[in-house]
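Sample log: Cytochrome c oxidase subunit 2.
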Amino acid sequence: MTSLLVFFVLVLIGIAVWQLTKIFDLTQVGEATDNSGVATDKDNSVNGYLMFGFLGFIYIFTIYSLIAWGDFVLGTPASEHGVEVDNLMEISMWLIFFVQTITQFLLHYYAFKYRGKEGQKALYFADNNKLEAIWTIIPVIVLAVLILYGLYTWNQIMYYDDEEDVMYVELYAKQFGWEARYAGEDNTLGKANVRYIEGINTTGVDLEDPNAQDDKVVTELHLPKGKKVVFKIRSQDVLHSAYMPHFRAQMNCVPGMVTQFAFVPTVTTAEMRQNEAIIAKVDKINKIRANKSKDLVAKGESALDPYTFDYLLLCNKICGRSHYNMQMKIVVDTPSDFNKWLADKQTVSAQWKEANTPAAEEIKEEIIETIIDTTKVVAQVEK
Ligand SMILES: [Cu+2]
């Protein structure tokens, strides 16, 4: 509401300034001013130089952006296919950079060179087949090569062989968080459906399905280095997008269907923390945090924890109010560490049994009774 008001105030100020200049013009009646509205040589010159100035602005701002924000790029890819994605990106960006530098120069330079002059007539071609053929064929060839290269790379990334030694992991998206399910010893994910969601079974695993008996559900994703992981991706509610930037992986999560993405992690979390660019980035973040902490401590609040690098799975689709915070930590371990970590986790069927055994029910009832008794006592004391 405030921004709408500010907008209206700005519009009104604009109109006021416009009307004032009109009044100012009217007071100049009788003086030798040109009110014809036709551009003079001076007007054209000013516009020509402004065009040239704008070209300088584009170039200087581009260089400034590269220097000021160049280190925000993600750096070393942490997956096998990530190298391919980065190559594709680099070739596309260099090409765009090269073409834009030349075309922007030509556009602005000629706008300056052929600016309007009294008595000068514009020379133009009504038609030139040779010229049109050149500027059609060259972009067609360049774009076709880029698109074919992109398609080839995409197919290489998306293809995986069922016979291959792969590991299946399910990513389950919901407003606003992630869960991951490991397929267990049989390497087959049990059936799941949103209708089975009940109690601790938060991902809707079909607990009757024999394949689901060894499935394990976790809230922190661990991946073994060097193993191809096939992600089967589901969503509970709305469209989400599973985005793992360091692995150059992204796939939509669509309610009612299973999408997939597969990759081989190549750098463990511990190794990535030793990466020079990551160390510099972490230092930068911690400097900002230290500065903020000073202010917080001065206000009597507690200081911020220092940041350590971790891979993340983020949601990359605006899916609701807390979308910005929809993330899950990813840890890439050595295969032996990974196996140890996974072995410690309980299967979802065991968790279910534990939560629904008569003993657990009894304890639950006892707790409820105690709560009721306590409330009665409190009520009596209050009387
Ligand atoms: Cu989301």
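Observation: DSSP finds nine helices and ten strands in the chain.
Observation: The domain at 166-272+308-356 is CATH 2.60.40.420 (Immunoglobulin-like).
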